[in-house]
Every structure is written in C-alpha cells, then in structure tokens.
C-alpha cells in the first residue's frame, strides 16, 4: 500500500510539473547566456571555417543543450517559437554567409553519352533475342 501511494504521489507530482505554465520571460532572460557562451567558443574558430560544421560541431551541440536546458528550467517545451527565434538570430549572426553553392550540371562528353545510351539498348536487344530464341527451342529443352 505504501509503495502504491508513493508511486501515485510521484506520478501526480510529475503530471503537475508538466502542467506548469511556460515562464517565457525567464527563458528569454536566460537564453542570451547560451548565445554569449557560443560566441566565446566560436572565437576559437577561424571565421573562414564557420561554414564547416565539423570545425565547431561540439560548440554548437553545447549551445543547443544550453538552450534546451534553459527552456526546460523555465517549464517551456523545447524547441518553441521563442527559442527558435533566438536560435535563428544566432544563425544569422554566424552563418549568414554560408550559402549552398548551386551545382552546374553539364552533359558528359559525346563519346561517354553515346556509350551510356548504347549499352542498355544493346542489352535490351540481346535479351529479346535470347527470349525469342529460347521460346522457339522450348521443344528441345
């Protein structure tokens, strides 16, 4: 009985904590500390390498965990629109020059293109010939 009571109390306490209202002002007050910490860490990375995620992935992971922790401490879900807005601001600050380069597609040289077209055509003809030949010889097989 005591065990059941204790478990139910813990369950109700957990349910009560989840229903607490998000303290948005507290979250917005704490998130800049995450941004400041990320900014300090990014100073260690050459700005020319800011578009290479492998150069700062650990710093970004720490930043993400910090924003999630602060949102949870303020009884807010993460991500939420306010946290996303803050994270977007950090992205604009550090990664606004990181654009994906568009790939310019070109046709291969004619020799390669002709080969790539003829191989499947020849294989198709060979398979049709083989099927027809085998169907005519079914009486022997």
From TrEMBL:
<keyword id="KW-0675">Receptor</keyword>
<dbReference type="GO" id="GO:0031623">
    <property type="term" value="P:receptor internalization"/>
</dbReference>
<keyword id="KW-0813">Transport</keyword>
<keyword id="KW-0732">Signal</keyword>
<keyword id="KW-0325">Glycoprotein</keyword>
<keyword id="KW-0472">Membrane</keyword>
<dbReference type="GO" id="GO:0006816">
    <property type="term" value="P:calcium ion transport"/>
</dbReference>
<keyword id="KW-1003">Cell membrane</keyword>
<dbReference type="GO" id="GO:0007186">
    <property type="term" value="P:G protein-coupled receptor signaling pathway"/>
</dbReference>
<dbReference type="GO" id="GO:0015026">
    <property type="term" value="F:coreceptor activity"/>
</dbReference>
<dbReference type="GO" id="GO:0032870">
    <property type="term" value="P:cellular response to hormone stimulus"/>
</dbReference>
<dbReference type="GO" id="GO:0006886">
    <property type="term" value="P:intracellular protein transport"/>
</dbReference>
<dbReference type="GO" id="GO:0005886">
    <property type="term" value="C:plasma membrane"/>
</dbReference>
<dbReference type="GO" id="GO:0043235">
    <property type="term" value="C:receptor complex"/>
</dbReference>
<keyword id="KW-1133">Transmembrane helix</keyword>
<comment type="similarity">
    <text>Belongs to the RAMP family.</text>
</comment>
<keyword id="KW-0812">Transmembrane</keyword>
<dbReference type="GO" id="GO:0008277">
    <property type="term" value="P:regulation of G protein-coupled receptor signaling pathway"/>
</dbReference>
<feature type="signal peptide">
    <location>
        <begin position="1"/>
        <end position="15"/>
    </location>
</feature>
<keyword id="KW-1015">Disulfide bond</keyword>
<protein>
    <recommendedName>
        <fullName>Receptor activity-modifying protein 3</fullName>
    </recommendedName>
</protein>
<dbReference type="GO" id="GO:0072659">
    <property type="term" value="P:protein localization to plasma membrane"/>
</dbReference>
<dbReference type="Pfam" id="PF04901">
    <property type="entry name" value="RAMP"/>
</dbReference>
<feature type="transmembrane region" description="Helical">
    <location>
        <begin position="112"/>
        <end position="134"/>
    </location>
</feature>
<dbReference type="InterPro" id="IPR006985">
    <property type="entry name" value="RAMP"/>
</dbReference>
<dbReference type="InterPro" id="IPR038126">
    <property type="entry name" value="RAMP_sf"/>
</dbReference>
<dbReference type="GO" id="GO:0009986">
    <property type="term" value="C:cell surface"/>
</dbReference>
């Amino acid at each position: 009985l005591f065990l059941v009571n204790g478990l139910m109390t813990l369950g109700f306490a957990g349910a009560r904590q989840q229903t607490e209202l998000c303290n948005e002002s507290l979250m917005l007050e704490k998130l800049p500390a995450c941004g400041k910490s990320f900014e300090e860490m990014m100073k260690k990375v050459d700005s020319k390498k800011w578009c290479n995620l492998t150069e700062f992935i650990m710093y970004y992971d720490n930043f993400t965990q910090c924003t999630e922790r602060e949102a949870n401490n303020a009884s807010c879900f993460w991500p939420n629109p306010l946290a996303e807005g803050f994270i977007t601001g950090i992205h604009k600050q550090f990664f606004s020059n990181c654009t994906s380069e568009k790939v310019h597609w070109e046709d291969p040289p004619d020799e390669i293109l002709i080969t790539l077209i003829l191989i499947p055509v020849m294989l198709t003809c060979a398979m049709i010939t083989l099927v027809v030949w085998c169907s005519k010889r079914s009486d022997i097989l």
